[in-house]
Amino acid sequence: MSSEVTTECLVIGAGPAGLQASYLLHRAGRDHLVLESGQAAGTFFTRFPRHRQLISINKVYTGWDDPELNLRVDWNSLLSDDPELLFTGYTPRYFPTADDMVRYLGDFAVKNDLPVRYDTRVVSVTRPDDFVVRDQHGGTYRAKRIIVATGVSQPYVPDIDGVEHAEHYYDVSVDPQDFTNKRVLIIGRGNSAFETADALMETTSVIHVAGPGSLKLAWQTHFVGHLRAVNNNFLDTYQLKSQNALLDGHIKGIRRDGDAYLVKVSFQRVNEVIKEIRYDRVILATGFRFDASIFAPECRPQLTIKSRFPDQTAAWESVNVPDLFFAGTITQMRDFKKSTSGFIHGFRYGVRALHRIAEQRYHGVDWPSRSVEPAADAVTEAIIERVNRTSALWQMFGFLADVVLTGKDGSVRYLEEVPVAHLHEAVARGEFGDVESYLTVTLEYGEDHDKVNPFDITAGRTSQDDTSGLDGRYLHPVVRRFRAGELVDEHHVTENLENEWDSETVHRTPLREYLR
Ligand SMILES: Cc1cc2nc3c(=O)[nH]c(=O)nc-3n(C[C@H](O)[C@H](O)[C@H](O)COP(=O)(O)OP(=O)(O)OC[C@H]3O[C@@H](n4cnc5c(N)ncnc54)[C@H](O)[C@@H]3O)c2cc1C
Hints:
Layout: E1 4-12, H1 16-27, E2 32-35, H2 67-70, H3 98-111, E3 116-117, E4 122-126, E5 131-135, E6 140-148, E7 154-155, E8 167-168, E9 183-187, H4 191-200, E10 206-211, H5 218-221, H6 233-239, E11 245-257, E12 260-267, E13 273-279, E14 281-284, E15 288-289, E16 303-304, E17 309-310, E18 324-326, H7 344-363, E19 369-372, H8 376-387, H9 392-395, E20 400-407, E21 412-419, H10 420-428, E22 435-444, E23 476-483, E24 486-492, H11 504-515
Parallel strand pairs: 1-2, 1-6, 2-3, 6-18, 8-14, 9-10, 9-14, 10-11
Antiparallel strand pairs: 4-5, 5-6, 7-15, 11-12, 12-13, 16-17, 19-21, 20-21, 20-22, 22-23, 23-24
Helix pairs in contact: 1-7, 8-11
The site of flavin-adenine dinucleotide has 34 residues, from α1.
Keywords: Oxidoreductase
Protein name: Pyridine nucleotide-disulfide oxidoreductase
Pfam family, one: Pyr_redox_3
């Protein structure tokens, strides 16, 4: 195939992010094309997670009939106007299988008639003037801008002496019988590591899971990439003395010793004492990275975080290659290990915000907004209505904000789901018009939210009816006022166990007073 295809926007990758971007471009009537190396949408999920269970929850029964609220506990659906295209309709399983995801993404692409070319692997991206992209068949594509949604397609291999002796989560056998009565070391402390340990617990003699730093639990840190309860059975087998153990330290070296391996571990708890431990199998579960190798030097994106992710501006644009944007899990460098950009239930909103940024920049289409009466009552009601419904601010806590813009003419407009960092820059550039001042509305966990054991009743808590006190550990709305990009003041709406901020005395009145 040699003819050149020209389009306004190329999307590389038909995973959840690429499909979300294509859906929004399609709905806006924008000329674009999606190039996917796999034979189907969601190719990543045909292989990963290796043990086939997703950790993104699929809560089918909520007691709510509000689709926006339901998205708070549906972590797999892409954003669309079609209620038939909700992931919750695909399986009742709370933790669905990766195969369910492949089925869902395939339907999402077909039912929306998205312009995806499968079996089309991008092998090079150059930029003589426009971007010129080549695929493995010699096909050529030309575009003014590119959205890269290629995910983390390569294993991340840490710099350890003898690391070549280790197998990788990426392609290690998932047949527990292959590890019968074996001593296994798993290097890494993310969910892939514990998912693997979980799968091997019945057949192995010993499993050690090793990594530096204190183990972080998602229910404590509120970061869903930290160890999830669904993957932590292993901790029982460690603390209840069933031969398995966590090793808190660095792996210094791996060397062959007959049919086995001797692994040098430096233990952080005991002054880095180094011990050599014998294992039959060593598995690396040390994460994944973005693949920048397809980009020619003139348009190769700068990388960040141990070169694992493309470095991006607040508008998800490459910091060094204009018109090159990123979508999906590779945008997690923007809120690394804090909010949810690494996961579908986070980046689906990121892709929508990126679409609105591109509509503004390339098509002069303003960010959607509605007018609000310029009065404290009306603004209070607008904010209260949103914080009690929004799934975007709920999932992307502290990262996406609703915005109340007050113009120099006194008019007030309400915008939804603007990335906080982008907002400040865009207001300064005049992209939101003549702004006298603006409010950001976010949902946030407060200071030390990850320091306290939430199950320890001696930790106590401030009464949720106490307007003077705020137990910031819990997710709550925060309203901040800015003038000329400077923070003027802020108001924290008292947290509430049910996350319903609609009490007149506890929530509305204090907010109204703040807004007067
Ligand atoms: C082990 C693991 C488990 C995870 N589990 C979950 C989970 O349960 N729930 C969740 O929400 N998130 C999960 N994630 C995080 C993340 O959501 C997924 O990584 C998700 O797949 C990201 O979507 P994406 O669209 O950004 O990238 P991907 O789904 O990886 O899609 C990228 C697409 O680009 C294609 N592609 C790559 N390179 C090229 C190229 N050169 N040319 C053309 N096409 C190309 C790929 O074939 C792929 O289809 C997990 C991540 C990992 C690593």
